[in-house]
Amino acid sequence: MATTLETTVNLFLESEMNSPLSWEVADLDANGGSRRGGNLVAYSRTCPGKEEPNDDSAAVITLDDGAIIMAVADGVGGAPLGYKASAIAVQCLQESLQGRVAGTDLRPAILDGIERANAEILDMGTGAATTISVVEVHSGVARGYQVGDSMAMIVGQRGSIKWKSTSHSPVGYLIESGAINEAEAMTHDERHYVSNLVGTREMHIEIGPAIPMAARDTVVIASDGLFDNLQLFEVAALARSGKPLARMNALVDLANQRMQGNQPGVPGKPDDLAALLLTP
């Protein structure tokens, strides 16, 4: 008889965190032995000065077989009920993974969760939409799933970027093509536009490659509140080493400085911010 796996879920919905939260997790190797002890760090807070609810949501879901699934969703700012759309996205992912049968691949459950969210948000009929970025880590291998411009990256111990997702936006595609660089993207007229969203009939899910995880690798997932204010090399430099909470605090502090215009000559984009780190 098929056995459904037990899950542990940490959801961050409309969060107003004064400081990051950290807890221990452990991925398992292919034989069921502990591969690495690690830490999850989460942070989510509204844009400085904003009175409406935080449109960013995040989730960390761990399964009994050692799988770790992390997700960040960013409800479209200015759209009706953006915060509700992002909450639906991570909750549908949670529900789909809770029904996963032991020994089965994670991919169908993750894809089903995102597709369910798309249908549910469309059924609301309000025009709400959200991004979502998901990373699964299981048996020492990571894989990303992407809709929109919330992004994920895997950073090596020395700060090398082993993999990153592609932002589904006009500016994101320009960066990937080499037409502009990251510094130019931060001031581009179209940096606010997103071309692929959960809650639209045209939604498509990009599935990343399987990335073997080294013992000291770090996974970063965040909304554009981080990635529109920091360049990738800055995120990698701050995320790669140090105590888990110190890494997140460094990222959050620099993003907030940029948002508030406290660094002359460096552009900033005020926005809600949600971020997750999986660190050694």
UniProtKB/TrEMBL annotation:
Residues 40-280 form the PPM-type phosphatase domain. Gene3D superfamilies: PPM-type phosphatase domain. It comes from the Bacteria. InterPro entries: PPM-type-like_dom_sf, PPM-type_phosphatase-like_dom. This is Serine/threonine protein phosphatase PrpC.
